[in-house]
Write a structure and sequence with these properties.
Helices cover about 45% and strands about 15% of the residues. By secondary structure, the protein is α+β, with helices and mostly antiparallel strands.
Length: about 200
């Protein structure tokens, strides 16, 4: 509990745990992903994540008999830092459920360069960038920015796969087929796999 302006309120971590008795697993993972997500300070006015996976694990450990605690443990095993939205989490979980390799999240084209284009998910060794474009990506300025982002990856020899809200209607089945095809048709970059290069 936290004392805010004279009122005791539940912490975000405890609220997440309480929701474990009500939410489906995927939604609970998405909620955890948002709690541990690293913010963009220039856009959000905060520097740190709301919580960490370790703090959430500690919360679960302190309440071993709470209804929903088993689902909370399962959700933490699937939670990752790097999902910027719930649809990104749902896409990652759909990939996991179909046996695809776990993708890297917030994959920078040029690691270490703060101005580098980045992909929401992807496979560096296979040069596959996956972008989930939500509703705000329909705005003209954002569309231009997205096109520059995608061209940067394509110019570096990457395959770019765009996923959007329409893909959720079939639980990302069509998107998964595209991703699986791209993985199958790609050739692992041996220099990246061996650690001699970072894939840029």
């Amino acid at each position: 509990m936290e004392f805010v302006e004279g009122i005791w309120i539940s912490t975000r971590a405890r609220t997440w745990l309480d929701m474990s008795r009500l939410l489906p697993l995927a939604d609970l993972v998405a909620m955890a992903d948002q709690l541990v997500r690293l913010p963009r300070p220039e856009l959000e006015g905060r520097e740190g994540a709301y919580s960490t996976i370790e703090e959430l694990r500690d919360m679960v450990a302190r309440h071993p008999n709470l209804q929903g605690v088993v689902r909370a443990r399962q959700a933490l095993d699937l939670a990752r830092v790097g999902s910027d939205s719930a649809p990104e989490t749902f896409l990652r979980l759909a990939m996991f459920d179909t046996g695809l390799p776990e993708p890297e999240l917030q994959l920078a084209l040029y690691p270490g360069d703060p101005r580098s284009s980045s992909a929401d998910l992807g496979f560096r060794q296979r040069r596959i960038a996956i972008q989930y474009d939500g509703g705000h990506h329909l705005m003209e300025a954002q569309r231009l920015s997205d096109r520059r982002r995608d061209k940067a990856f394509e110019a570096a020899g990457w395959t770019v796969i765009i996923v959007d809200k329409a893909d959720q209607k079939d639980s990302f089945a069509a998107a998964i087929r595209k991703i699986r095809r791209a993985v199958k048709n790609s050739v692992a970059d041996a220099t990246v796999a061996s650690g001699f290069a970072n894939g840029d």
